[in-house]
Each structure stands twice: as structure tokens, then as C-alpha cells.
Amino acid sequence: MTKSKDSEFLKIRKLFPVTDRKKGITYLNSASTGPLCRPVKDALYNYYEMTQYLEKSAIDHLAFASLDNIRKQGALLLGAHSDEIGFGFSTTYGLNIAAFGLPLKSGDEVLLSDIEFPANVYPWLALNERGIRVKFVKSVNRRFNLENLRKAIGKRSKVLSLSFVQFFNGFKNDLPEIGRICREHDIYFIVDGIQGCGNEPLKMNDANIDIFASGAQKWLLSPLGTGIFYIRRELQDKLRFPFASWLSVDWKLNFTDLFHYDLPFFDAARRFEMGTYPYAHVFALEKALELINSLGVRHIQRHNCALLDELIYYLNSERQFRITSSLEEKHRSSILAFTCDNAREIHKEVVRNKIIASFREGSIRVSPHLFNNQSDIRRLIRVLQGKK
């Protein structure tokens, strides 16, 4: 990391009130919910101010311009085209587009990991009533296993839906290799991206991803109820409409002449968006994406991993702790999980010291982000040392 880039992270840290030492909080939990920065908070505040005084038509024009920018910023983030990006409300929203939009029929099979977050399970289980079967791929040592994937693929396998990064231990799946396997077998590749979007570089075409969905309330540092999705351009016309909106067509912001029922649907991913938009969150998501892209995801990845390296060094020096995350370069992420004999009690002590981290599947889960620095990690280490 260059000194100039370090100074950018320091400058951005000051935009996050959660880093104010007077509050006494050390926040290491972006894998749960990312804190809001001042530009995002200001965007929310400015919207509510506008709604008191401005006519709605003026806000419409501002919001639709922000939506266009969200699609552009999302495309930059994911290495895609802006017409492949849509505004969504959550990861689940995009996964439902996939589950109920893909041209599946009775007898088809959907492959899932047996250690998926429930958001990437229940939309697919809901297809049972259509005769579509879910088959779970057995994990090995709580990691998705490529050999078991190959064994699981059968003649009726049509979809693989998988997390980019596993929520509980931070295992980053090798999406390019998995995408290659899917393409070989003519299987749609769907990705739940929420735990990697904003902290791990990824280009959609490099991984042969068909649909990618991510809520923005974690690593993208936007409010709950915001998200983005990607639909490969060549797939868009093949998708069924799982739902349709009056804003799936282009009114050219002329909402005074609405008796037109012959308008064509957008020739872009935005046809799968839902109206009416939550404008406050539109403005907020725009600012959050701009912040992420201003630093660059690759720089964010390096920053986060450098912070975790210091924690890893300490954990490896202490016999009582065992790291449950993969430290292999291609499978590392911004999530680090570790455990010990009394992990739950140690987690309680960490929280009592106002260090915010999660307890997942028997491990303490730490997830630093762009607003964190070495002092945050060292404060955590001091608390862990006190529990020897």
C-alpha cells in the first residue's frame, strides 16, 4: 500500500462516526452490518429535507439520475456493463429473480452448497411446488468442495447457486474455476455476492456468472433495504418475469400522461427492478458506491488483509486459539474466524469491551473494513491477551 493510498484511508476513516474514540467503540463487524458514513447520512437527511419543500417531480428527476449513476457505479464495481446492473432491495431480491425467472421446468435440479446462508436456500426450495428439486453438494471441512461439485452434477442439473464468500468462516470460493465448470456442463451460475461485494475484486465475465445478487448493507456501507444485482446481457431476454412493475418501461419521467399500455420493457437489467423506488435509499446507495469506487476494491482488499495479518500473527503465536478460516491466498477474504475452548466467553468479553464482532458457528468472527486501522486490531488483541 502506498503512502498516498494510506492517507486516503485515513481521510475516509474520519467520515465514519463509529470511529470516534469518544464513543469507545471498535467496530469489526462489517460482515453483519456496515456503519454509515457522513456522506450517506447526509444523502438521507437531504432527501427528507427536500420532501418538505420541493415538488415531487423535481425529486423524480434527481432520483432517476442517481439510479442511472448507481447502475454505472455498480458496473464499475463488478466489471460489467451498466445495462446489466439493477437496483435491488436485498440479496434475496436478486436471488428471487434467478429462482423464479430462469427457464426451469419440472424435473430440473438446482445445486446448492450444504453450508449456504438461508437467503440462498429458501428461494430455491420454494420451487419444489413446481417439481424442481434442490440437491445439496456436500462440503469438506466446512468448505465448498469442487470434487464433490463435479460428482453432484447430473443430467437434470440446471443451476448452481453459491456464495462468493461464506458468511461464517470467510472462505472465498474460486468463482472463475466454478464458473468454468458450470459453463462446461451448461449450468446457470448464480452468485450470492453479499460477503465479497465491496471487499473482493471480481469481474462477472471472468467467472462466467449469469446472475449476481448483493445487498448493500454490509461491505457496501449502505442502509438496509438497498442492493444491486447483475444479469448477464445475453440472458436477460431468456428470463421469465417473476414480477413486473410499471417502472419496467420507459416513461421518460413524464408521469402526467400515463394511459399508455403499449410501451416496451427496458432492454436492460432494470426491467426487473420494482417501483416505486425508495428514493431516500437510492440517494444513500449512490454515495456509498461512490465511496467504495473512489478507493478501489483491490486497494480495500489489501487494506483489510493487512489488518487481519496482524491479528493472524498474534493468534498463531498463542496455543489457545485456532483459526477456522482458510489462510490460502485464493480463499482468504476480509472475514477471519477463530476459536478456542471457551470461545463464547471470550466473545462476551470482547463485546463487554465495546469491540463489536460476531459469534458464528462456534467461532469469533472479525470483519474489518476500509474505516478500520491498526489501532482497532491492536485493541482487540489486548482484550484477547487479557483472557489468557
Give a short summary of the structure.
The protein has helices spanning 3-13, 38-53, 56-78, 91-101, 122-125, 146-152, 175-184, 279-295, 297-317, 343-352, 374-385; strands at 26-27, 85-88, 109-113, 133-137, 157-163, 188-192, 211-215, 227-231, 322-323, 336-339, 355-356, 358-360, 363-366.
Give an overview of the whole structure.
The protein is α/β, with parallel strands linked by helices and 388 residues long. The chain folds into 2 domains: 3-30 and 296-385, Alpha-Beta Complex (Aspartate Aminotransferase, domain 1); 46-294, Aspartate Aminotransferase, domain 2 (3-Layer(aba) Sandwich). The chain has 11 helices and 13 strands. It has a 7-stranded mixed sheet with strand order 2-8-7-6-5-3-4, sandwiched between helices. Strand 12 and strand 13 (363-366) form a beta hairpin. It starts with a helix and ends with a helix. The model has no long low-confidence stretch (mean pLDDT 95).
